[in-house]
Amino acid sequence: MISAHRLTKTYGARTAVDAIDFTVEPGRVTGFLGPNGAGKSTTMRMVLGLDRPTSGTVTVNGRRYVDSPAPLREVGALLEARALHPGRSARDHLRWLAVSNGIPSRRVGEVLELVGLTSVAGQRVGRFSLGMGQRLGIAAALLGDPPVVVLDEPVNGLDPEGIRWVRTLARDLAAEGRTVFVSSHLMSEMALTADHLVVIGRGRVLADCSTAEFVAEHAASHVRVRSPQQDRVVTLLRDAGLDVAAHGGELRVQGPDAATVGELVGSAGLLLHELTLVRSSLEDAFMTLTADSVEYAGASR
Ligand SMILES: Nc1ncnc2c1ncn2[C@@H]1O[C@H](COP(=O)(O)OP(=O)(O)OP(=O)(O)O)[C@@H](O)[C@H]1O
Predict the structure, then answer these.
(1) pLDDT digits (tens, 9 = 90+) for 60-116
(2) In angstroms, what is the span from residue 202 Cα to ligand 1's centroid?
(3) I need a surface site. Which of 140, 202, 229, 236 has the fewest CB within 10 A?
(4) Ligand 1: which residue has its CA nearest to atom 6?
(5) What's the predicted TM-score (pTM) here?
(6) Distance between CA atoms of 131 and 160, rounded to whole angstroms?
(7) Is the pLDDT confidence value at 198 over 60?
(8) Does the Cβ of 34 fall within 6 Å of ligand 1?
(9) Angle at 131 between CA 126 and CA 133, to 5 degrees
(10) For residue 272, pLDDT beyond 60
(11) Domain ABC transporter spans what residues (predicted)?
(12) Are residues 13 and 80 in the same domain?
């Protein structure tokens, strides 16, 4: 489990992470979401002891990462901009990591297999594509068979097959009982991967809830109705106390589910040509939630 308590990081006058509290529980994937510059990488670096908190604490399984006697066996991490020796092969890179962390070298073959790099294990990593580099980073993260896995933007630069692979891997690791903490700026991707979400903007926690709760609360919905007797339907629904707006040939009814609207219209003997529950996309919900905390917003908004 990862536990942050009033975790804060300032760089000069800029507060990158502002007294945040959150926990990342084992057995589920926790998505760490926020727009660019929200403080995700800074937070993850503090989890891993690569940055010192200005104040507050963050612990992994009850102690600071730097106090762990065998960090790679405790926490596996994929960070952005991973420094690799370009002339080294993937296998040698992992062997070097294993040896320097007291991990048996047979584990190298296992993780290469796990991430699908066995056939290119002898190639120099300097020639790896972005996706292969990400897979190698994930192999390194899993080398110590750690109970806690931290992945910073693991799907960046991956093709759809690679994205699906990371999603399945994260879910499998969580199903094995591990603590899995994955950052992303893509709401729709996280909705498919994460069981729980911690959303941050400008260094503050904006939401900390299950993905299902987030969807129910933030992805607004309405019922789209088309009828050749539109005016009568509008009157009927308004008389029933519903919020109805006409948009050209369609009606948007806020609030109720499609069944409620259908039953009202049907019991009045009116005709329906369409009755659809429309959810606004999660990406829209995320943009709305974080709108005030986007650091570099496009001028066209
Ligand atoms: N070493 C540093 N010195 C000064 N400012 C920094 C440093 N590292 C991060 N920041 C600032 O802290 C804020 C949070 O950055 P961080 O990289 O943690 O965000 P992020 O959510 O990971 O964003 P991204 O998705 O763009 O990586 C930003 O405003 C960034 O400019």
Answers:
(1) 998 888 787 777 788 999 987 556 677 889 999 999 989 988 899 999 999 999 999
(2) 10
(3) 229
(4) 11
(5) 0.81
(6) 11
(7) yes
(8) yes
(9) 35
(10) yes
(11) 2-227
(12) yes
Kindly report the CATH number assigned to the domain that includes residue 230. 3.30.70.790
How much is the pLDDT for 301?
40
Asked if residue 226 and residue 102 are part of one domain, the reply reads no
Separation of CA 39 and ligand 1 centre (Å): 6
Ligand 1 within 6 A of CB of 95: no
Share of the chain above pLDDT 70, in %: 96
Atom of ligand 1 at shortest range from CA of 39: 18
State the Cα torsion 273-277-278-279 to the nearest 10°. Answer: 180
* Structural domain range at position 200: 2-217
Please, what's the b/e burial string for 282-298 (b: 16 or more CB within 10 A of its CB; e: otherwise)? beebbeebbeebbeeee
This model of the complex carries an ipTM of 0.93
- 29 sits in which H/E element: strand 28-33
- Which of 40, 80, 152, 296 most suits a substitution to test ligand 1, by most atoms within 8 Å of the C-beta? 40
